[in-house]
Specification:
The chain contains five helices and five strands; from the N terminus they run ββαααααβββ. It is α+β, with helices and mostly antiparallel strands and 175 residues long. The strands form two sheets. It has a three-stranded antiparallel sheet with strand order 4-3-5. Strand 1 and strand 2 form a beta hairpin. Helix 1 runs antiparallel to helix 3 and helix 4 packs across helix 5.
Amino acid sequence: CSSAKKSGGTPSAFHTLPDQTPLAYAYNALEPVIDAQTMEIHYTKHHQAYVNNLNAALKDGKIESSLDDLLKNTAKYSLAVRNNAGGHWNHTFFWKSMAPNAGGTPKNTEFLSAIDASFGTMESFIARFEETAAKRFGSGWAWLIKTPDNKLVISSTPNQDNPLMDVATEKGRPI
């Protein structure tokens, strides 16, 4: 996610879609899992709306902050800032987390060891992750996070919240 900088290095309230605009892969690259129309609508309409609405909410309050700082201090901002900053960050993470033809077992042995230590097996992790996502009533997200004490945890947040927010029940860094 991007935010423009004013001279002197102070972040401005101007946020944009991720630097890989358009996506780093074609809208149809994830078919048949996610169809091209869904990808295009979510990127060009939904994600862009979060960016536009965030900029409008920040301009109204004359808030100048980076996206990460907004998330760390969500409780002190309006619900419009919280929802749109979260939607912007979450979707940016979502786009970067996916790649065409990336199926199969991850190659990173350190990650696989951490998954095995936390969940028993990759299959057990996947089952628990899917269960967490399925149990989220209404709008929200399922996350694999690294907690401040370096544990891997599966969590879920409502709406456009995420584990980076000061209002999150389970805090950590999405991975």
